[in-house]
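Worked example 3. Consider a protein that binds flavin-adenine dinucleotide.
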Amino acid sequence: MYETNYHRASSIQEAVQMMGAAAEGKYVSGGMTLIPTMRLRLAAPSDLVDLRHITELKGIAVDGRSVRIGAAATHEEVATSAELGAVCPAVCDLAGHIGDPAVRHMGTIGGSIANNDPAADYPAAMLAVDAVIVTDRREIKAGDFFTDLFETALEEGEIITAVRFDAPAKAAYQKFANPASRYAMTGVFVARRNDGEVRVAVTGAGSNGVFRHQGLEAALSANWSPDAVANVAVDASDLLTDLHASAAYRANLVKVMTKRAVAAA
Amino acid sequence: MGVDGIGARVARKEDRRFLTGKGRYTDDMSVPGMKYAVFVRSPHAHATITGIDATAARAMPGVIDVLDGKQLLADGIGNLICGWMIHSKDGSPMKMGAWRPLADKTVRYVGDAVAIVVADSVAEARDAAEAVVVDYDLLPAVTDPLQTLADGEPQLHPEAPNNLIFDWELGDAAAVDRALAAAAHVTELKIYNNRLAPNPMEPRATLGIYDAGDDHYTCYTTSQNPHLARLVMSAFYNVAPENKLRVIAPDVGGGFGSKIYIYPEEIVCLWASKRTGVPVKWTCDRTEAFLTDAHGRDHVSTVKMAFDAGHRITALKVDTIANLGAYMSLFSSCVPTYLYATLLSGQYDIPAIHANVRTIYTNTVPVDAYRGAGRPEATYLLERTMETAARELGMSPAELRRTNFIRSFPHQTPVIMNYDAGDYEASLNAAMTAADWNGFAARKAEAEGRGMKRGIGMSCYIEACGLAPSAAVGSLGAGVGLWESAEVKVNMAGTIEVMTGSHSHGQGHETTFAQLVADRLGLPIDSINIVHGDTDKVQMGMGTYGSRSGAVGMSALAKALDKVEAKAKKIAAHLMEADESDVVIEDGALKVAGTDKSVPWFQMALAAYTAHNLPPGLEPGLKESAFYDPANFTFPAGCYICEVEIDPETGRTQIVQFVAADDFGNIINPMIVEGQVHGGLAQGIGQALLEGVRYDDSGQLLTASYLDYAMPRADDVPSFTVSTSNTPCPNNPLGVKGCGEAGAIGSPPALINAITDAIGNNQLTMPATPEKVWAAAQPAH
Ligand SMILES: Cc1cc2nc3c(=O)[nH]c(=O)nc-3n(C[C@H](O)[C@H](O)[C@H](O)COP(=O)(O)OP(=O)(O)OC[C@H]3O[C@@H](n4cnc5c(N)ncnc54)[C@H](O)[C@@H]3O)c2cc1C
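Given these inputs, the predicted complex is written out as structure tokens:
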């Protein structure tokens, strides 16, 4: 790791000031992605501004079916939140399958979506539940937020403060884990609103990161049943081939995980 | 047997310090004035070094010096060597290319060391290492073992045309060809044995200390065999003569073979300590470990097995290409030859065997012994072939094996080995009963109802352990003898220190060796200390690998104990005015059999050292040593059965049961044996399902972290069912055979046989990833 300066912010305003004063600063939340990257000398921020101790970023609030998760909520807090579990257990289940216990106690939802790893789990949930990403400056719809591999709509110095969404009527996440990293080789989050609209968001499989699958959404909107998946074509040409799996295999997993998610929802 | 004696489940003495964070590993060592080293490594798989400019790096904060391969050469430090001579079938010696500890002209794999930076801190050394400018002229690289022998491929070493190291054979080719021609059935198969990264929990580390006052070196290092390291560093690398070099391998966190060898880093740190005048410590990080630890396996073979009409094997023909990487590591030549082809008879009575092995260079890190070393490759090949043959012949896999088992001992195979004892059917029966083999059909049907494909597979392995009779291995090309040595020092008040050359790096020697002493002398285990891992403390040793510590190291201890007991009896007999032949040792005392006369052990020890009242002519003191050279290899064997369920939609394999029935000879500590089997099985499952080193065509290592290299986790392995049915080894005083590698040797074929059974397709390579299994399980078009 290269040398860096650590700052602990106690308010959003202070964090923004600290970042403004830094030569090449970076926010750090759980550090579960950023610190290993720095250790490998692939990132060399001059300053780290720690967001975890800012009260406004903490906590999970559920009001009726409307949900607000603070950006600094850890995966463990999300996984074990009784309030959230009562309205949207699928998101709790997703958080409970990220990494290992140590990672879940440190890593945060804000850090995960800001990082937008193409194999991360949360981005699929955000797209499928049509979440709004709240920042210190504005609100961004999930559909506009995840722009490319490790790229988001966040601007220089912008802080995610929370995510908001209305709990869908039915939802489930199915993840086929990469045997090495246990990130998603393919993960599918399905969500069905009360009005019958279905969203199917896929992570781990796309060449450009998380995406929604129109064909599966149409089929499931017409017929909310695992069987509806069988006749949908999943085009492998948009999918990723890497060391671990081919696009053709991932295309198969998209269908299988979708089918199982619908069955589990 | 006492409570702490042979056969008791004694809790491991060493675990107190390991489990409370009190272990002392090489990286824990700190000496005054110590500095830190970082190596500059080649980012290219094959290139010529045209210049190294360290001016900027030397000027950076905290930097003591930057040293390179030219300086190392000028100081007369020798090449790394392979210590086992193999001759090709045309009589020519193996083609050993020069391996410089710091490359001075050519780099041949990504990670090849080029320079060392010594600085006040690791961070400063790393910063400076990035500032060392190395100019390379890139050369084309070759990484595919099947491609490397072709004309026109990149050449790694001028000594080895077409990258061929040797073309070796064992067995009677003509007899095999005759049997193949006359066979009622021939099973043919192509076998890949995937390349593995060893991944011990503790990465390699070394601390080199040069003392100018005494012109003496001390080397702390993560070694499985400190005396061997000292010998090789002094005799071949000219670091220092043995009397000027102390090697200490303190607590070592796993080795699996990868810490047998002498690597560039310990040599270079010792040399750098002299050049810089400061102690130099280097600790490998995980990425560096993937890049530079010797890998394991990496064979490609074709097999032909001939059967007569009665389904008896009449011949086996094997042709293997073994990838040794960019240089020949210390034991790399014996692994795919005498540790591999000699085991190709397995548990079967095969009249004729012929193996041809070509070893080759590629632009990849060197390959050497890894848990099992050659024997897993032989077992996988043979047991996949047996299973395939059974399917082709329409026979149950158990029946085909029973038909061909060796049933009388000693048994001379056509590939050198002479098996001394075994009962293969006993292990087979035990495993089949434990696995409820006969109930499988019902379980399969039930699984089908859930949409799952269930399969069962077996593997009957044999291995050769207790390496090894010195004269025999010498005649086969070994550069060293493979005896072991032990010294028993009875302290003045009777407690005991045992100095053993068997290094312990996870095996539990501090417990099992103490159990032997406790058993023989009837002393409490806490009064016995096992000392190992330091050439200044331990008289001599050859170290730990090839499951040799029990069979060879403990046998040496048993011999030394014979001498101690004989002298103790003389002293006690004199004290009790009895005949020494009437003295027995029991419960910590020396007694005259059939009387109530008795001298406590501690009193006898004190008498040995006060020397006030010793038998006339007897030397004072009580300290005896012994060397033990084994009369033969030992032959652990067993039967493993694996049952799996495959999710046909995803190709995911779940191991629903794994049964191991082993014959390890006599057992010193069943708990430790079970632990060794569990660990070995997990490693074998890792090889079969998850692990596989991958280089791209340019020689970049693609699997250089745990994000991409899949190690088995707790939920990848089932709860194992293990048992032993033992035939004592007739060739050593303890009747032990060795258990350290069996799990890793026997398990991969059982697992692959089970998966191929489940999916009804025999074409599957390791690691059997979900995608491969899914693809193989698709209905044929
Ligand atoms: C062993 C291991 C296994 C893992 N397995 C999984 C897995 O299975 N699935 C999965 O999805 N993830 C996995 N992860 C990643 C983990 O979930 C991380 O916690 C997450 O990706 C990043 O969150 P963090 O809070 O640690 O962010 P950090 O590492 O602190 O930061 C990541 C990036 O986000 C930025 N950032 C952080 N917080 C904010 C904010 N509030 N506003 C704006 N930018 C911000 C940082 O500047 C940085 O660029 C794993 C990680 C590890 C180490």
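Take a moment to read the result before moving on. The longest strand of chain B covers residues 185-196. Chain B has a mean pLDDT of 97.
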